[in-house]
Amino acid sequence: MSIIIGRTPCLAIFIQSSGDAAEKVNTECTLASGSLSPSGLPSFRSNSAISYRIQRHVRYNSTKPPTTTAVSSPTSPSSASPSSAIEHEDRRSSTPTPSPTDGTEITATPPKRQSVISRITSNLSLTPVAETHAKGAEGEGSSSVRKLLELARPEKKRLLTAVGLLLVSSSVSMLVPLTIGKLIDFFSTNSSTFLGLSFPVAAGLLAVTFCIGATANAGRAIIMRISGQRIIARIRNQAYLSTLRQEPEFADRSAGDIVSRLSVDTNILGDSVTSNLSDGLRALISATVGVAAMFWISAKLTFVMLCVVPPVSLGAVFYGRYLRKLSNLTQEAVGEMSKTAEEKLNAFKTVAAYNSQPLEGQLFSKKVDQVFQLAKKEAYMTGIFWGASGLTGNLAMLCLLGYGGHLVSIHEITVGDLTSLLMYSAYVGGSVSGLTGFFTGLMRGVGAGSRVFWLLDRTSHIPLDKGVKLPHSRNGPIRFEDVRFRYPSRREVEVLKGINMTIEPGTSVALVGSSGSGKSSIQQLISRFYDPDEGKITFDGTDIREFTPESWRDRIGVVFQDPILFAGTVHENIAYGSPDVTREDVEDAARAANCDFIWDLPQGFDTLIGKASLSGGQRQRISIARALVRNPSILLLDEATSALDSTSENAVNAAIDDIIRQKNITVILAAHRLSSIARAERVVVLENGVVSEEGRYDVLSRREGSRFRTLMAAQLLVEKSSKGIEEAKPESESESESQSANEKEREALSV
Ligand SMILES: Nc1ncnc2c1ncn2[C@@H]1O[C@H](COP(=O)(O)OP(=O)(O)OP(=O)(O)O)[C@@H](O)[C@H]1O
């Protein structure tokens, strides 16, 4: 008798309202008569579920790591997937009212579905709105839908199985309205048979059928979700690999945005090709079967229902387009927000030292507000759209009831038939809203897809695999031939205006010049982080652009001004980028870089270190060891001793002296400190983007009126004043050491 208990609320709610009732019917039927709907009634799933995913991710990005709460609706097959409580709540509160007969345009057989996709494709214009660095690469928007579907191809077998299971579960769930109608007639007419069988046999058969439906539905949900996650994992890996292949400038500039593409957009994309596709398919089947069943029960009544379709369909198309635009804008705003947070969290100590927490809070809040404003727009649109479609659905239901009641009174149809018809119309309405959700979800997927595909398809300005491999045995001079260069992000300023110089192999050169004169830029060009705009840099007579960047960089050891260490052991940090080196090699390199402190660490080379768990000087020496362990032919030192105290500086300089003396590594050092500059065999002075002077240190420093002499005099004054501070500590050993280290320079300059 549980079936009878179950039918009452179903009917009552149908009559009350076709829209909100739909979900209630779902719930009531399943809760009250669980055996009636084991395979899941139509989901009536709002596209706001997807919308909430974005908002949820916004929350992840701003405050907490992603978590999924396994709150699943007891009724909706799609809710077999984990979803957050908020998502669930929203899905319930904004449950769409099924628009009863909206199926003619979208309810299509597979070929028609193809035409829907083609229509979408032809209407797309996928240039992301604020994609400043993506201009030109976004033109192939229409191919995004194809790419989106292609993503699902490796999962073809599994997805086909899921579609098979979907067919089974949908067919079973479509039996429900018919069964309820027949049950009403069975009990109201006191008939001896139910569906041509004795009642217990028929009930048993139905129970078995529903169990099969439930199993198929569970299988479908599991397969779809796992395939979706597999697709997301694949896209993430590919997109991250593609990012790593880009030129460094790209990642520097767009880190926050890339992270957002890798997390939020890939999720939307994965959902779009699995859950969304599956929901769309289920909606399509339900709508088709539902309409067919309605025609079979009463063609007249069905025609009445179908009158409401056109306005709702038109609204859905406009809504979908608007949503896609909004989705793109939201993703970009989320990217900006992540970028802001990332930058400030990376410089947390600076923020704290300058008591800038309130200011930073405000700045971030502005970015959050931009995301919120977009979400608000979406909320209004969604509310209006679903409200309107709900009203249409309810009016259609009223027509159906009025006219249907009349047909019952003249005995043209039975009460059971009317009930079945009402249920089918709710199913069809739910399916149509599901199709709308599918369409808008697809639009979101296309929007997110264009951002992810752009990342996947982007070709680096300095492709890692382009060129010939530079053999390790080859060596020769590095020559700058009229090199001109502007940073891509600041095209208006020409940093290098025709640099000409030759650096012989095994020699050492100090690049000298005032701050901003282009010393680091020259080193970045040698590293091929950028390419010159004009002129060329050659190695052993060959333009370095002809070598693969990988093989070229293999020959270079770089020590940056601000050394970066990664979370890991000291050994891992020194061996970073040289996976084949032994512990012995690492220790030798550490010794050469004067990293004595490592032996005093609790676990020596196995001590875990992080970004900031060592002093600046220690970090710099580890990064020198990292450069040396590669056994480089060229060593680029960018202010390598700038963070060191006098003792460490002398120790590192001694190591650099050794390297220079051995004459098998070309050393190019950008330096301000006299003690570093004096070690190089040759000095190149940069001014106004050109080489203004070059020569031996002692020659330049003795030449009256030379630019170098003026520069060094100023530098010596700086060093003298800092020395004065150190001299306040007479017991310091560093005093005597650094004094002797700089004696040579003082004498030479006679300032
Ligand atoms: N990534 C960048 N994008 C745009 N402009 C840059 C970039 N890096 C440096 N510049 C500019 O290029 C010029 C040269 O900078 P560079 O870092 O090469 O000078 P530098 O001589 O090494 O200075 P310092 O001695 O202070 O380190 C400067 O005007 C600087 O503002």
From TrEMBL:
Residue stretches spanning the membrane: 159-180, 192-216, 280-297, 303-322, 383-404, 424-443
SMART domains xrefs: AAA
Molecular function GO labels: ABC-type oligopeptide transporter activity; ATP binding; ATP hydrolysis activity
Sequence segments annotated as region (Disordered): 58-114, 722-751
Membrane topology label: Multi-pass membrane protein
Domain ABC transmembrane type-1: from-to ranges: 160-444
The protein's name in its UniProt record: ATP-binding cassette, subfamily B (MDR/TAP), member 10
UniProt source species: Kwoniella heveanensis BCC8398
